[in-house]
Amino acid sequence: MEQVPPYYHNYLQLDNILNSQLPISFENGNEPAHDEMLFIIIHQAYELWFKQILFEIDSITAIFSKETINDNTEDAGIILQRIKRINSILQLLNQQVHILDTMTPLDFLSFRNLLVPASGFQSVQFRMIEARLGLKMQQRHRAEYYKRTNEGGFTMTDYSSINEVEATPSLAELLNRWLERMPFLNLDLWKHYQLVSLSSASFTAHPFWNDYRHLYTDGLNEHERNKLNDFDFVLFNQNNGHFTEEQCKALRLQFTAPALQSALFIILYRNYPLFQTSFQIIDALIETDHLLSTWRHEHLTMVRRMIGMRVGTGNTSGAGYLEGAAQQHFIFKDLAGLSTFLIVRKKLPALPDAVLQHLTYG
Ligand code: HEM
What is the pLDDT of residues 3-25, one digit of tens each? Predict the structure, then answer.
């Protein structure tokens, strides 16, 4: 059979896409509200980009799910490239929200009541992005909102597909597993390590971390002394009665102490060729969190201007809910928090030959 050559309009399914803007205010019996078209198109544009983000996240988690991924295979490079793509899309989405500044609160009010109880809260793709990256239900602000299947909540079908996604390993969990498996902190490689610090007091069985802890302590000023307790808990699970359960959760959200040791080590020795991609992956994910947080703040500011302190169409407390989510919904906060535990570059201990052999190509 002869193949029909692709035609722009058909290839892009523009009949489907361009016939999918159906403002309710344009229906018979209603007063047409000019700005409802913009309101629909901006949401649809967001949803298309959400689809692309999910497509990238799924491909990244598929690579991370492999038994081993190595820094000098193309896997790590592909992961990095795709996280960077997600970040570029998020940058665009953060700009896009400003188009709504051309709609005044009065313009919005002319069709707002027609939308009730639909709301961006019900964006299944947004929930999936959060869950696939690693936002946990128990960490969510007003978690009870997410269990609603009545007005303003999800349909039963959407609710169960979100639950399904939440039960599969997230990018944060897979990254944690990858970091935990990094071989360079294996004690066998550290037999000939030369201690830098003079103190012989030992804190862990690992000579590098004993040394590093001394160097870190020496670098703290008198107002920062208590950061050593954070160091001991975040990187070594040692609490010694310093922190309540609540404080522990705030100090370390969802990464494990061994994974954070690896991440800190990578950040410290990022200039070694084999660490460069891993470092950039960590850095890019911190940026993903930052960009999502920027979106939450941009959206919140726009919502405050648009509806003041009214409840949302999705029947949450509106700006109050969005503010709580903006403060709480971080995914890679543990990685960003590692900056607390850095020491000045010139004090970094030299690495033993056995470790160096692992860190150079050849
Ligand atoms: C006039 C413009 C907008 C207003 C007044 C508005 C208002 C709100 C409000 C009040 C909420 C809280 C849930 C509720 O009770 O409804 C919400 C949530 C949300 N909105 Fe918007 N929104 C607007 C535009 C957008 C756009 C363009 C998007 C793009 C997709 C969007 C996506 C979302 C998402 C994803 C949530 C859930 C946020 C979370 O749970 O952290 N909104 N919106």
Answer: 899 999 999 999 999 999 999 99
Which amino acid residue places its CA nearest to atom 31 of ligand 1? 120
| Token code pair at residue 331 | 């995914």
> pTM for the full model?
0.95
CA 120 to ligand 1 center in whole angstroms: 4
Tokens encoding 47: 């949803």
Count of structural domains within the chain: 1
The answer to whether residue 1 sits within a structural domain is no
Range of the domain at 42: 32-359
Q: DSSP states of 55-109 as a string?
A: HHHHHHHHHHTSS---TTSHHHHHHHHHHHHHHHHHHHHHHHGGGGGGS-HHHHH
CATH code of the domain containing 83: 1.20.58.480
Query: Residue 266 falls within a domain, yes or no?
Result: yes
Atom number, ligand 1, closest to the C-alpha of residue 50: 30
Query: Which residue has the least CA distance to atom 34 on ligand 1?
Result: 120
Let me know if residue 144 belongs to a domain: yes
pLDDT digits (tens, 9 = 90+) for 163-203: 999 999 999 999 999 999 999 999 999 999 988 887 667 88
